[in-house]
Structure formats: structure tokens, C-alpha cells
Amino acid sequence: MHGRSQLPVFVLVVLDVLLAFSCAELSEFFRFGSNSIEQYRIITIQGLLVVMCSFLLGVYDSWRGRHLGERILKVWLAWVISFVVLVAFMVMTKITESYSRLWIGTWILTSITLAVTIRIGLYLALVRVRKRGHNVKQVLVIGSGRNFSNVVEEFSHHNALGFRVKTVVEHTTKEATLIELEKLIDSGQHFDECWLCLPLKEGTLVQPVLYVLRHQTMDIRFMPGLRDLPLLNYKATPIGEYYSLDISCSPMQGHNWILKRIEDVVVSTIILIGITPVLAAVALAVKLSSPGPILFKQKRHGADGKPIKVYKFRSMKVHQENKGTVTQATKGDSRITPVGAFIRRTSLDELPQFINVLQGRMSIVGPRPHALAHNEYYKDLVQSYMQRHKIKPGITGLAQVRGFRGETETVDKMARRVECDLEYINNWSVGFDLKIIFMTVFKGFVNPNAY
User: Fold this and answer.
1) Residue 131 CA from chain centroid, whole number
2) CATH for 137-228, options being 3.30.450.20, 1.10.10.10, 3.40.50.2300, 3.20.20.70
């Protein structure tokens, strides 16, 4: 049985609005009070806000083919943003004193918890349904090569993504493939989708296949095995009447840029407030350990390769470098002060970069900024090296939590670091950022390669 059905959007909208009202009522029950007209106005505003945020973040888009973590994160984010906007509205209109903080806090907690729990429950129920063969789209796969084999293997059985390979046409020659496809269509078999899993060099087959399928209503997708390319965002962009595969483009466009900036401002502000005593203590220790400034300022490449000034706590004695050269710190480097050795091992020297984040020069998560001289040296030695500058540099990154930090005395070490940076750019999401931040807390600060 093929399945195209999904929960209608209006049902999910009504569900979210009802959830906002029911959780508010439940919170009021725990508060032992009575609702007023003013409270219902606030609840109505919040319900509209969460629906609007859900539309903007794609919460109501089809979940078919998407992983649970990605979708749940969007649900969580939509509710969090809606409450942040609501509280900001209440503060600006000076009506916060009219409402119980306990009631608002309980309302926020129960709403977000239930919203996420209900979505997980719906997803798991759908998984069980699909394992029984219902609500699954039947797919015709045409292709050859590694990507073709992987797709056939992954989607040949019942799975939570909602697609199942029904028939496979392995591409050998253009003529043989088209003849087999025509016989298949003439047999009257039904397919919901057709996937063309062809290498890019076989792209000339796409147009003849479209002609053979011209009378079919199935969805047709081209999956050319783009993971084989070193940097790709898996996105098709319409340009006039043409569509382009974005082989090397920044993911920080449109609402992604806004989400990333909100994430940076909120997280860096919270962290800076929390680490103020640590900043003061480190600044004092640096000042007393050796003569010179507390902060070390150095030009690095930022987004689009533009020079930016990056802050760090000074960890070395004041010294003079030859113009145009930057000597990386090595193990037992005599330039490093005792205090500097400690703050480098523990990454405390990086803390002033949270100020850079608020300035908009850096992000919390992203490729680490390298010295200008290092960029000039490695850009011709490491493939796609400069592509790491398509987004803002970060305080932490995927390379750092995987242990690729510190001295890069070989080209191979730098190449492995760049591979992590490009993987991060390819797969960027707010959820990926939060995962890296979480991993940094537990394994990214102290590292034997940091000296």
C-alpha cells in the first residue's frame, strides 16, 4: 500500500493552539487562581506566536525523509522563540507585574515539554505504521555506482523515513536502460516516486528518462551521489528559469543567518555573564605574570575571507615576529609564560572571543580562525582550504571536539582539520551547533595538543 497522507497542517496548527491554552489552564490550576480576560489575551498572543514561528521554521513541513532529532529541535525552537517574544512584549508594554511569574514559568515548562513529547509520540506511532507497510511511498530507483547501491540497500526494507524501494533498474547503457524503463511503465506498475541515482557524468540520461515518464504523475528526484564532492550543501537554487546545484555556497543565508546570529547573541551573553569572575581572575593573573598587555589582538580571516581582529588573553612574553610570519607555539616553547601555559591547555585564553561573537566578527561554533600567514601557506597545499571561510570563524568547532587542535606541523594534520570544517559547513544546523557546544564542555577545553 502506498501512502501520501500526512497529518493536515490545520490539524497541527489547532493542536499547537489547544496545547498553548490547555497548558496555561493547567499551570493556573497548579497556581490555585482564576483566569482573567487579560490572561486569555496573553495566551492567545502566545498561541499565534508559536504557530507563526512553526511556519517560519518549517515545523509543519512533511517529516517524511527527515530524521527525528532534526524535526524535534525545530519544534523546541519554535516554542522557545514564541515565549521569548511573548516575554519581551510583556516587558516592553510593562504588564509583567499583572501576571504571576510562577504561572508563566510553569506554563512555559509544561508547554515545551508536552509539545516535544507529543511530536515524538506521533513520530514513533508513524514508524510503527510504516513498519507494517502503511503510509510508505513506493519508489522506482534507476542508476549505477556506489550511491545507487547505498540507496537501494538502505531503502529496500521497511523504514521510518517513509520510502521503500519497489523496483530497481540498473543503468548499463542509455539504450538498455530506456528500453527496460519503457517495459516497466507499460506493465502498469504504480510508483509514487522515481529516484535517479546516477553519477554526475551520467547526467545526460535525465532528460530521456523524463520523456519516458512524461505521462506519469510520480515525483522524480535526481540523486547524483553528491557526497563524493568535498564541499556541498545539498541544495538546489532557482536562478531565473534555471536550477543550480549549490556545490560551494555558504549555508548562512536567509533565515539561517538570522537563526545563527540569535544563537550567537543569546549563548554568548549568557556565557559572558556567567564567566565574568573567571575573566577578571585570568586578566589579573596575565597582568601579574609578565609585562605587557592583558589581551593579545591578532588579525585573522573572517567570513568571506575578510580580515577581522580576534582577542585572546596574552599567553606569551612580548616578542617581535618577522613581518608576514607567525610562528606556531610548540611543545616547551620558551615564549610561553607559566600562566600562559595553563590558560592555553585549558582554553581559558580563548574566553575574550565571546566579545568578538557579540561584535559579530565570530560565532560560538565554526572553523577556528587561523593566522593570515598560515592561510597564505596552506591555501595552495590543502584542497578547498579557503572554503572554510564561507562562514564566520568560531570559538569552538567540529575539528576541536574531535581532537584536531594545537600545532599543525604537517600538511596532513591541517588537511584533517579542514575536512572537519567542511563537514560542519555541509551539515550546519542549530542542533549540530548545540551538539558541538555540549561536546566542547565535556571534552573540548583541555587537550594534550594545546600548548
Assistant:
1) 29
2) 3.40.50.2300
